[in-house]
Amino acid sequence: MHELPARWPSPGEGDGDPVAASARLTPASTMRGPDAPEFQGDCRREFFRVAARLPIRLSWLTTEEREELRAELDQPRPTPGAPTGDEVLLATLQRIEEKLDLLLEGAGKARPCSLGEADMKSAVVSASGLQTTTDEPFRPGDAVKVELLLPESPPRLVTALAQVVSGPTRRIEGRRQKVSLAFECVDDGGRDAIVRYACDVQRRAIRGRGRALA
Description:
Layout: H1 18-22, E1 23-24, E2 49-61, H2 63-73, H3 85-106, E3 120-126, E4 129-134, E5 143-150, E6 156-166, E7 177-186, H4 190-213
Antiparallel strand pairs: 1-2, 2-3, 2-5, 3-4, 4-7, 5-6, 6-7
């Protein structure tokens, strides 16, 4: 279970709409402050990108963890048809996990994977990657697990394996820095969810400009 933020903040608040309230279409370069990311010349433009404030978690990976996450995200989608023994077992394990979730919630213990208001970050997001800030030391080539929560109904958790594509050539301790990440693998349907989110933000921005000119 993911802790839905009490509000999805942004300038203008988007008339109460959680998608519009979490992002804006203004150029990333207009954002200011220590949390304001900016796409530089090396950032990817294969997909629409939006400046947003969303629950985001970055976890730096070892070489072994990188390959484990890649294998997990590369799992093929099950084909339609009669369930196999493995599929029946998986469904049973998923039901057990759901029951454990309820027990943990009842005991007041949050699962460590949950994302919520405490994880809110400013970022520039697209289906090919994102840029945000971090206090963690990093350098180009580092592998990162990215988890972000999109304001769908219900909220959609996207998990991706990413690689640092820009930053200092050596690790710098104790200083917040901008980090640009390119997605290598995204969970099943996750890239489509990000594209949907970016398109929704663009549609709302266009309608807002039309109302302003009317």
